[in-house]
UniProtKB/TrEMBL annotation:
Residue ranges of domain HTH tetR-type in the record: 3-63
Key word DNA-binding present: yes
Protein keywords: DNA-binding, Transcription, Transcription regulation
Protein name: TetR family transcriptional regulator
Entry annotated with the keyword Transcription regulation: yes
A GO MF term: DNA binding
Recorded superkingdom: Bacteria
PROSITE patterns xrefs: HTH_TETR_2
One record GO biological process: negative regulation of DNA-templated transcription
Residues annotated to bind DNA: 26-45
InterPro entries per record: Homeodomain-like_sf, HTH-type_Tx_Regulator, HTH_TetR, KstR2_TetR_C, Tet_transcr_reg_TetR-rel_C_sf
Originating organism: Polycladomyces abyssicola
Length: 195
């Protein structure tokens, strides 16, 4: 029962935080949207900040698991990177409200920054591992794999966020954009922009 209640809280919280932003969101609004008493939220989370951190950590963990699953289905580093990139795009498009929060709200307070750095770092480390393997095998030519991994993570996030805002509330159109985003990012990553 506890997990169902937390899922209700998270579902309501992601909508309220996305609609009002972290600062203006109220626990009362989250409780009302979830159809539970405000005290139930405070039973599970000490504060709005703790709720937000837990919500974002769960989303990032799901995204990381999704990317790992995709990566493990391929062997060569190039294909692993391709699968991770596609998995991140699909996950972020499929969780548009979470994506807006991730890329607009998580950098607010110092506490939030510290809480998310470790999760985002795990994701970037996963990308970096693939880049290093590919470099060792002569597939990639990189001098700064850490910075490249962070750049890939950021490029995917911003490309998806751009699509989410451009296709506002048109989920079919967003779904149709997924192959174009993946193709564009793959081309940029593997071929660059020079002729």
């Amino acid at each position: 029962m506890r997990h169902e209640t937390i899922d209700l809280i998270f579902d309501a919280a992601v909508e309220v935080f996305a609609e009002y932003g972290f600062e203006r969101a109220k626990v009362d609004d989250i409780a009302m949207k979830a159809g539970i008493a405000k005290g139930t939220i405070y039973y599970h989370f000490k504060s709005k900040e703790e709720l937000f951190v837990a919500l974002m950590n769960e989303g990032l963990e799901k995204m990381l698991d999704h990317a790992r699953t995709e990566m493990e289905q391929a062997e060569p580093p190039r294909e692993q990177l391709r699968r991770m990139l596609a998995a991140q795009v699909r996950f972020l498009i499929g969780h548009g409200t979470f994506t807006k929060l991730l890329l607009t709200e998580v950098w607010g307070s110092k506490e939030r920054q510290q809480a998310f750095r470790s999760r985002i770092r795990q994701y970037i480390d996963l990308i970096e591992q693939v880049l290093r393997r590919g470099t060792e095998q002569g597939i990639f030519h990189l001098t700064h794999p850490n910075e490249t991994a962070a750049s890939i993570f950021g490029a995917v996030g911003v490309a998806v966020l751009h699509t989410i805002y451009r296709c506002q509330d048109q989920s079919e159109q967003m779904e149709a954009e997924i192959p174009k985003i993946i193709d564009t990012l793959e081309h940029l990553l593997f071929n660059g922009i020079t002729a």
